[in-house]
Write a structure and sequence with these properties.
By secondary structure, the protein is α+β, with helices and mostly antiparallel strands. Helix content is 29%, strand content 33%. The termini are far apart.
């Protein structure tokens, strides 16, 4: 039987390419919570506001006297297997060969878990998780509401944007976040269209200091990142590509608004400690191979008071 050990998971995760997602990078603090649910009092003490499971969705819990007191995040679970032929190859392989066989399969699913976690982080930035979830033979929605993300609408075309306009945009967004009681550094993420316009209007001017960086640019003291986050959602049988920052948008986010990424204890009778990723194997009942299971339960906590979104009309 192919055996997957904890050390295999650690090795595979450690060998993954460095994380470059702006959405995931926002959650610098990660916490392993050894529970399957989170008390809203813990969330309040962390981010100052409570995400709730939307009424009627799969994760909803009945409202008691004090309202919803616990959130029960949903898991990522992957069922795979090594065939009997692959198992024969594994048994004949050297120790290095065994590691390669396990690593190739685990790396595939570890990347999928990472991408799914990233998608949840992207959605959290918009104030709500609304993600595809398999429930038996049906595809339903996993829904969490963090509250409304406030925004500014500009009734003009992005093509008319000047650097003075950008500084006005950035200053107004910073002030809005500060007025909600969130201080400290603020960074900006620009959509592809907004960033291109910034580059164009920065090229032939000397009034404002502009510095290009590996992941964006600094303009008059404002740090602007290029949007680099997308994910694919499946709704009503239709695949849709969505982004962290949509067309003609500029997002501002407080660098430290209490946000964190929690990994809760998975639904497993053996692994009772919370870990970001867990995997194990078990011989199949028909003795035709080895079942492989991969599990994770990420849950991003975000303070919507620390986010502001500005959008141009066209």
């Amino acid at each position: 039987m192919v055996i997957v050990r904890e050390s295999d998971v650690v090795r595979v995760v450690g060998a993954l390419a460095p994380e470059t997602s702006n959405a995931r990078a926002y959650f610098k603090r990660t916490v392993n919570r050894n529970t399957t649910r989170i008390a809203t009092t813990d969330i309040q003490s962390t981010v100052g506001n409570i995400p709730v499971i939307k009424r009627g969705s799969t994760g909803y819990r009945p409202v008691m006297k004090g309202g919803i007191t616990y959130i029960e995040p949903q898991p990522i679970e992957i069922d795979d297997y090594f065939s009997a032929v692959e198992e024969d190859d594994w048994e004949r392989a050297s120790n290095m060969g065994k590691n390669q066989i396990v690593d190739e399969r685990l790396a595939r699913w570890a990347k999928l878990v990472r991408n799914t976690t990233k998608a949840l982080c992207i959605q959290a930035h918009r104030g709500a998780i609304d993600y595809m979830m398999q429930a038996g033979n049906e595809m339903v929605r996993y829904e969490v509401d963090y509250g409304d993300v406030e925004g500014i609408e500009r009734d003009k075309a992005l093509s008319s944007l000047t650097l003075a306009d950008f500084i006005e945009d950035a200053s107004e967004m910073e002030q809005a976040i500060n007025d909600r009681g969130i201080g400290g550094a603020i960074e900006f993420i620009a959509s592809t269209e907004y960033f291109k316009q910034l580059v164009t209007i920065s090229a032939n001017q000397t009034k404002f200091p502009v510095e290009m960086t590996a992941d964006g640019m600094n303009i008059a003291g404002f740090k602007v990142l290029r949007n680099n986050d997308t994910y694919t959602d499946l709704a009503s049988g239709t695949k849709t590509v969505k982004k962290l920052v949509e067309s003609r948008e500029l997002m501002a986010r407080a660098v430290d608004a209490g946000q964190e990424l929690d990994f809760l204890r998975i639904d497993d009778t053996v692994q009772r400690q919370a870990v970001p990723l867990y995997s194990f194997t078990k011989e199949r009942g028909d003795q035709r191979g080895t079942d492989l299971y991969v599990k994770s339960k990420p849950f991003p906590l975000i303070n919507v008071k620390g986010i502001e979104i500005l959008r141009y009309a066209s």
